[in-house]
UniProtKB/TrEMBL annotation:
It comes from the Bacteria. This is Alpha/beta fold hydrolase. Residues 15-229 form the Thioesterase TesA-like domain. InterPro entries: AB_hydrolase_fold, TEII, TesA-like, Thioesterase. Belongs to the thioesterase family. Gene3D superfamilies: alpha/beta hydrolase. The lineage of its organism: Bacteria, Bacillati, Actinomycetota, Actinomycetes, Kitasatosporales. Keywords: Hydrolase. One of its GO terms (molecular function) is hydrolase activity.
Amino acid sequence: MTDAPAPDGVPRVTVLFPGAGSFGREFQPLTAALGRAAWTVRYPGRYGRDFGVPAPSFDAVVRSCAEQIGRRNHERPVLCGHSYGAYVAYATAARLARAGTSVAALVVSGARAPELLEVPEKAAASHADAAVYLDDVDPVALADAPSDEWREILVDTTLQDLRLLAGFAPPPPGPLTCPVLALRGTSDPLTSDLALTPWRDVTSGPFTQRTFPGGHTDVLHSPPCTTWLSGALGELP
């Protein structure tokens, strides 16, 4: 499968929101499946002249993501976020909806429903604590880093993202009418099936929940997950 076509033959663009500390590597199998119809948002401080300088607030991250989408002038994009990125994607979808830009669907992976979110205080306390947290949640993230320098960058960005996430305030109910698709890995230590289910309350539209083999992040590399998700996106109205 290459692009995810809408019924009218126009590719339905999927905007990807990486997890804490990530630059989007977790989405490689999905981007391979979707081809040109997928791109990854650039969180403030991840790229360019402000590299290493975090956004001043979670809302500033959301505002930046909404502006990036707005500049591309997509017609009803899909927003797909993993872990930290799930909350950014949700808040971005709500912000776009309030501004009159609807989304085709919201996909959330590896994230408890917003009402159940708890950012461990210790994980966001220091660089060393963030490294321990990241290693516990996603053991391959640091092990697969190409260099010691990149390991330090991953830990630093994870720490910054967790501190921003502590300031996340769920949007007021009402703006989302799109389908919401929520998924997790069977051995994900941060979620459970019960913790995923309340995502149904963020929309007045359809809700689908699925669990696939894998952990917190490597679930996105599971062929059953990739096949199901790319197929589901291709069937969106």
